[in-house]
Amino acid sequence: LTGELFFDAARDLLPRVEERMRSQTNGDQPGIRAALLHLLSSGGKRIRPALTLITGRMLGADTERLVTLAAAIELLHTATLVHDDLIDGSLVRRGIPTLNAQWSSAATVLTGDFIFARAAKLSAETNSVPAMRLFAETLATIVNGEIAQLFEGRGIASREHYYQRIYAKTASLFETATTTVAMISPVSDVIRERVRCYGYEIGMAFQIVDDILDFTSDQTTLGKPVASDLRQGLVTLPVLYYQESHSGDADLQAALRESDCDEACFQRLVTAIRQSGAITQAFEEARQFVARGVAALAELPDSPERWALIDLAEYIIDRRL
Ligand code: IPE
Ligand code: IPE
Ligand code: MG
Ligand code: MG
What we know:
By secondary structure, the chain is an all-alpha fold. The chain contains 16 helices and two strands. Bound molecules: 3-methylbut-3-enyl trihydrogen diphosphate (2 copies) and magnesium ion (2 copies). The site of one magnesium ion has 2 residues, from helix 9.
């Protein structure tokens, strides 16, 4: 991400965000401190802080509050990943072992909780009650989505369901990033609505592309396991498109029904989906979300940050990681 042009619009502030996140463990239990430092040093694209900082600069937010907000958003994201990897039993993220690969579930859950608590504290330090309220609401939305996914069972396949799920798990946080920035900036409700819309649309696209990369990429590039969604019975957009044109596919039916799709069946299915038009169709849909997001910025005054946000939106489609 640091190689991307749009990143220049946030580059000078990002070290302050990193520092703010690291300083959230001063004086805590050494194990927790080590875990958080390990998580923070493992990289991550930092797209949410970049989005937050660039939007804030565009809207004239106070720098100190903006840095605090960006740190709050990224810590919330970090905590959801800790819990997500535990729930999914994923052993690798950002190319290194996850916490749950090294620690007990109890220690992993508690570390996630600790990071959530620190994220909440940072959000309070923005001194904006509306921003805090939205922040808390978003955490509830994400957890609701995760629980729904757990209880839904395998193979639930509808477009409607899919959109709800990717909103809850991913787009809600992008939307909250841009909306809370507007809440701490001297702007009108109209502007706030525009940047909210932008955050929502690119957040939806971001998760669609994540779901595509789960089929088309590999673990070395992504730093996390691939082909894992379908294995868990999770129906994503490429699968929905594939299903439309291959509803009789025996492997697909096996994968969606129960666990009677063995390793060879999964391999065949992943290859078939990769080679079908489903990937292109899913990309096309992600592009439409991005186009709507960019359109929401059209009425805003011209500025270098507005262009950076347009670049950022396009990066979401082109990204390999
Ligand atoms: C991963 O998010 C989880 C999703 C919402 C798809 P990122 O792809 O932003 O993960 P990092 O922070 O760069 O590792
Ligand atoms: C992100 O979705 C989960 C949350 C943000 C809670 P994914 O499950 O698709 O993320 P990855 O693919 O593991 O990064
Ligand atoms: Mg996951
Ligand atoms: Mg994924």
